[in-house]
Structures are given as C-alpha cells and as structure tokens.
Amino acid sequence: MGSVMRICFVCTGNICRSPMAEQVMRERLAEAGLAGRVVVDSAGTGSWHEGDPADERAVRVLREAGYESEHVARQFHADWFRDLDLVVALDRGHERALRRLARTSAEADKIRLLRSYDPASSADELDVPDPYYGDLTGFEEVLRLCEAGCDGLLAEVRTRVG
Q1: Residue 121 sits in which domain range?
Q2: Residue 105 confidence (pLDDT) above 70
Q3: CATH code for the domain of 84
Q4: Which one from 8, 11, 16, 150 is the annotated catalytic residue?
Q5: Known catalytic membership, residue 16
Q6: Which residue in 44, 65, 108, 153 could disulfide with 117, CB within 3.0 to 4.6 Å?
C-alpha cells in the first residue's frame, strides 16, 4: 500500500448510486483535509452506461445539496483490485458481482458494503436501494444513505491514513 489510499464505489451502471457516494466521499475527505491522501472514484458492474454522465436526477440532488456532480460512467475491471485499497459496493448484488471478479482472497478482502459503515444500519438493511425507476425522493434517500455511510467510512479512512 502506497502513501495514497484508493477507494472505488461500485453500483450497477455507475450513473446513480456510486457517483453519488463518490461525490459525498470526496467532499468529506476535503472537509477533513485528507483530499491529497485518498483518491476516490466509482464504477459499475456492467457496461450499459459507459461514457454517459450521471443520471440527471442524481446530478440535481447532488447539486441541491452542495456537491459536485461531474461524472463519466465506466465499468469496473478485475485488474483494478490490484491498485485499490477498498472497493465499496452499494448493495449485496454488487458485492456478489465483485466477489466473483476477485481472483484472490486478498482482493475479496477489499470489498465492503457502504452501509456497513453506517452505525444506524442493521445487518438486514445493508443495501442502498436503486432509485433509477422511481422519482426524485428515491435519489434524496440514496443521498442520505450515502452521507451516513461515508461518515462512517471517513472514520475508517482516518485510522488507515493516520
């Protein structure tokens, strides 16, 4: 592990949940003075939206809450595990897909669920629900869950980078 920690958030198409988590985490790191020590990005388990911007509803909810929203969707590749310290899945389906891609137990050990960092989440509610087929309130809920998860993740990051 180098001096810079690398985190990748992963959802299905990389246009709703993972870009929202990425932007929240980037902001949390900046506020904590850790932006130079942690690199954050995101990807999807599939290639459906590769090259697309984030969903306009995700962009709207992020901007209204004061976050950046620049984003280009991409697909997660197994060889990325090598350079990443944490691969944070937004739901159990993404976690399973990532575990199938992991080639070693060391790679599999890098995979976490975002909501596992939220002390308010119980073991049976660790998924961030997919807002894609719903309305704006779903995206607002995703943002709230991403904020809660990223707050907990920031604590973990602080212990790792000192």
Answers
A1: 5-161
A2: yes
A3: 3.40.50.2300
A4: 11
A5: no
A6: 153
Q: Would the pTM count as exceeding 0.70?
A: yes
The set of residues, in sequence order, having a beta carbon less than 8 Å from that of 14 and lying 6+ positions away, is 42, 43, 44, 49, 50, 73, 74, 75
Residue 17 annotated in active site: yes
| CB 30, CB 62: distance < 8 Å | no
Task: Characterize the bridge pairing of strands 38-44 and 86-89.
Answer: unpaired
Catalytic residue chosen out of the listed positions 17, 26, 28, 57 = 17
Give the total number of structural domains in the chain. 1
Distance CA(45)–CA(59), nearest Å, equals 20
CA 24 – CA 30 distance, rounded (Å): 10
Q: Is the pLDDT of residue 1 over 50?
A: no
pLDDT given at position 3: 79
Q: Which of 37, 74, 85, 130 is catalytic?
A: 130
Question: Among this protein's residues, is 92 annotated catalytic?
Answer: no
